[in-house]
Specification:
The complex is a heterodimer of chains A (118) and B (89).
Chain A (H helix, E strand, L loop, with lengths): L2 H26 L3 H27 L2 H32 L26
Helix pairs in contact in A: 1-2, 2-3
Chain B lengths: L2 H27 L3 H26 L3 H26 L2
Helix pairs in contact in B: 1-2, 2-3
The chains are: A mainly alpha (118), B mainly alpha (89).
Chain lengths: 118, 89
């Protein structure tokens, strides 16, 4: 078993476990915004790890190039998708969790602009 | 079957299946529709990881193209869902 295989196995395990963490975060977090934050960031890391493990496993030029392109694509699109969902949730009026301190979005209804956390 | 591909088959895929199950729980009970869209997005994204792990398990690089196409479709679907939600209130 070469060092490359070992590295690929470690990357694969890290990616899979990070994906599991993303799912646990989606299940356990208190509101939409924290759920979206946890799941989108963790799963981006997971996909990067899985694609890099793939590139290491095959080691061919075409596979490595496509895997790096896929990583770049994921890094470009995942924040956009999460941002779009977050904007939609704010527009729908989904409430923030009680412990949320900064709310920098403009309020949809008057008042509640400067709620102080007790 | 190398050690890496059997690791992907016997450890990677079950863990990803567990993650998919947890996501399905959130999809079923999510109190608002935004929760369900987040869960759907995570389902699509986990599907990409599943295809990547399958590519390692099957030792076949063709699955990488499947993963790239799935990533594109999942992103477009999520953005379309979010735009529709934001416009439809």
């Amino acid at each position: 078993m070469s060092l490359r295989d070992l590295l690929a196995a470690a990357l694969l395990l890290a990616g899979v476990l990070t994906a599991l963490l993303a799912a646990i975060g989606l299940l356990r977090m208190p509101d939409v915004y924290t759920r979206m934050s946890a799941s989108s960031k963790a799963v981006t890391l997971a996909k990067m790890c899985v694609f890099l493990a793939l590139a290491l496993e095959f080691g061919a030029l075409g596979v490595t190039t496509r895997a790096l392109a896929a990583v770049a694509f994921v890094f470009l699109t995942a924040p956009l998708a999460a941002h779009a969902i977050g904007r939609a949730a704010v527009a729908l009026g989904v409430p923030f969790a009680p412990g949320t301190m900064p709310n920098e979005m403009p309020p949809r209804e008057p008042a509640s602009a400067e709620d102080a956390d007790p | 079957m190398t050690l890496l591909s059997s690791l992907a088959l016997h450890v990677g895929l079950p863990v990803l299946g567990l993650a998919l199950l947890l996501t399905l729980v959130r999809l079923a009970k999510g109190p608002t529709i935004a929760d369900r869209v987040v869960a759907l997005d995570l389902l699509g994204t986990l599907g990409i990881s599943v295809v990547g792990v399958v590519a390692v398990a099957a030792r076949n690089a063709v699955y990488l193209d499947v993963a790239i196409v799935l990533a594109l479709l999942s992103f477009l679907g999520t953005v379309a869902f979010a735009a529709y939600l934001e416009r439809s209130r």
